[in-house]
Amino acid sequence: MSKTYTKTEKAFLTYLREIKAYHEALSLIFWDLRTKAPKKGVKTRSETIGILSSKVHRMTTSDRMKEFIDQLKDETKDPIIHKAVLECEKKYERSIKIPEDENKEYVTLQSQAESVWEEAREKSDFEMFKPYLEKLVDFNIKFANYWGYDQHIYDTLLDIYEPGITVKQLDEVFPKLRTSLVNLLEKVKRSKNKPDPSVILQKFPKEDQKRFTLEILEQMGYDFEAGRLDDTVHPFEITLNQQDVRITTRYDENDFRMAVFGTIHEGGHALYEQNISDELEGTPLSSGTSMGIHESQSLFWENYVARSKAFWKRYYNTFKRYAPEEFHSIPLDMFYQSINEVRPSYIRIEADEMTYPLHIMIRYELEKALISQDIDVKDLPELWNDKMEDYLGIRPRNDREGVLQDVHWSGGSFGYFPSYALGYMYGAQLLHAMNQSFDVNQAIENGELKKIKEWLTVQIHQYGKMKEPLDILKDVTGETLNPDYLVRYLEKKYQDIYQW
Amino acid sequence: MSKTYTKTEKAFLTYLREIKAYHEALSLIFWDLRTKAPKKGVKTRSETIGILSSKVHRMTTSDRMKEFIDQLKDETKDPIIHKAVLECEKKYERSIKIPEDENKEYVTLQSQAESVWEEAREKSDFEMFKPYLEKLVDFNIKFANYWGYDQHIYDTLLDIYEPGITVKQLDEVFPKLRTSLVNLLEKVKRSKNKPDPSVILQKFPKEDQKRFTLEILEQMGYDFEAGRLDDTVHPFEITLNQQDVRITTRYDENDFRMAVFGTIHEGGHALYEQNISDELEGTPLSSGTSMGIHESQSLFWENYVARSKAFWKRYYNTFKRYAPEEFHSIPLDMFYQSINEVRPSYIRIEADEMTYPLHIMIRYELEKALISQDIDVKDLPELWNDKMEDYLGIRPRNDREGVLQDVHWSGGSFGYFPSYALGYMYGAQLLHAMNQSFDVNQAIENGELKKIKEWLTVQIHQYGKMKEPLDILKDVTGETLNPDYLVRYLEKKYQDIYQW
């Protein structure tokens, strides 16, 4: 910070840095809870989380914050401070519009709902979760009205996770994408050239899987001096600070795909966070710009890189160095086809890359209808199953593998799901743009994964939250959201595999 | 908390709980830094530590805190709150007596001095460290005068770590202890029956050492659901909350004693913290009452239990289950004698239990003289070496193995060292008292280590900071500090080993 700041700017930066300190502590606490923490300490730890979170909340909604916003918004000449002010203003405005007692009630509801959901899912009992979900939907409708919106009430929820994206856009894009995917899926189903996934479902010791993924992370340019890899039940990436970006993964010794693709996925998130410009450190801008853009990075590495033929041309021998004998006799083509098997599944997180976006659209359509009060919570299980049958051709046998499978709604997250499908589309658009700069497949085959990382850093990572998601997309690809690239990518790839 | 509290009491407890939350975050950060954290994240992490620490400092010295103290000190009828108020008052009074600018200067000096010390020790160059140490001593003299004292200026520093202990007491006890130890050491030196330590210096794989220590920790009653064991460079125990008390250890594959006795030592600290009464949770009372009493617990397990013959009678077979072949032919007596070899060493942390307290007395005498301005910093190396020769019969060949070996002074800790020797003496007094309740050696030989833990919990652990160190000693043993028990213990044990 060799820049010259005004007194207010300096005070604002110090204030932001203090908020960041609590965030860093909270992130470490979450990481620890999910990787290392002894179980009896969790009760007190939860209280501590509550105390630190409410400290952050008080600071982001304080009169002091309001003063900073008012004083700096029009006056500051520093573009980073200006953008940070806008970011703070957004959070401030959202927070102060919610009456304190309602917010308190909502926070309590969230934590109750999450544990009820867990039990309800276990028992596959939607009725148990229903009253909580009803209240959560009601709160979200009420909050959305407090926040206000131009066109569609759901827009204001979308805006939390993917600023700039609206119902109007999604309603244009998603149906096109859905039709294309359903058509592709039909072709897959009719194909006589189906891969046999069982050939790759061989026992693969955890420690050897880990060694392989560590080597790939290294190749991708993940900086192990600014991060680490641990085991967990639910894989995640978490940023403590810009030079401490950790990832976790889980292992299935009978299906290496979980850890290998899971780790590369989280590695993609981590590369984003590790490569944000140092200039943004200590401000709310030093993080990925949106859920969708973040997901475009993780999916880029997981699918467009690591599930490509070029990748396995390059790394299949490396893989075999760590894999047990049983893998050694599988021909490359057969291996490649097997890891790319398309098979409609009940569970979203087990879906392949072709059917995955269909899972998202089901959730989008349902939650949009819930928020605009076109459907009732009580009708969800039936509607869910109908859509599954419609889009994927399979009907869940119970709510556990249907409407109860995801945690998001129990935490009150409405508007989040679309990010996943956006990530797929953004990613395909970025792949297209990257191919204008250099032959991506050739680079992968040459083992130049760092070239991909560099390109993504220059185009996306460095900006953190300085640019809005659709501005990034525009600047990099010259276009707005466009599903055609994803469809074309899938068509080309799966035509080759399924030979229709 | 089913008690009825007044409004002020409730507010005070909430305030204390918030301070605890920052402490918990800080503890986790320290633990993480020393066990897991990627190195590039350390810079930002250090800033974060500074921010959280100064938040704690602001809260413990705030006007609000002063109000709580004034309102509750004489009014509260709750003994826990009353004691917590006194504890807060003590911290408050100490803090506000230091002018803010001097404190700031001192904090900066501390961190500079620590890194200068590291380099100076590396280079064995006292001159390099001298100006920093001079300033640190000056500050401590100045602060001690701000704080005030009755008899000796050093008393007010002692009081930080071991409330109730004074120079008067130490000057009675230490010389007696020193004379006895020097006499015992003479007998050891003249003995013709010296153990051969080389027989136990066999390669012992780290993972197997760990398995053995885990089994012993389990036997001691360390609760692994409320803690965990990790690797580190400098072993420590750290309390995140009462149900999350972690320990770390380091391994030397050519000398198992480092990890085995080190882990049991930290385990002793951890048992103390794990077994404090739940009623004190969330207050500053939920921690060990003093450095000396804490050390009495760790040393109790390390020496009085784990270096005893009874312990190895019981656990030598267990040990052999994990130890390599080379150990299997060593007879129990020879093994026992070897792990208890007495040999004067330059380095305190490598000292045996007989010579260890002599290292402490050297430091005590020197720092007391520094603070009372009877000697100058520049004369330290020479005085140090003279005393080493006098008490231990060896003269350091350089400052690295002499006056520069310990980190404490570089952090401004004067008054801390005596705790170590107090821990030895307290421990021997507790052992004597425990033997009035049951035959300790017999219990160890029966593998009833938990009986020892239970006794220590009832007598000491549960009280946390509710009792002052000398009150605990009095209540448990009926006596005040008395070095005779330690001397008798050492005499008996080493007469048996060295057969004089």
Automatic annotation (TrEMBL), chains A, B:
Gene3D superfamilies: 1.10.1370.30. Its cofactor is Zn(2+). GO terms for molecular function: metallocarboxypeptidase activity; zinc ion binding. Its EC number is 3.4.17.19. CDD domains: M32_Taq. It catalyses: Release of a C-terminal amino acid with broad specificity, except for -Pro. Binds 1 zinc ion per subunit. GO terms for biological process: proteolysis. This is Metal-dependent carboxypeptidase. It comes from Melghiribacillus thermohalophilus.
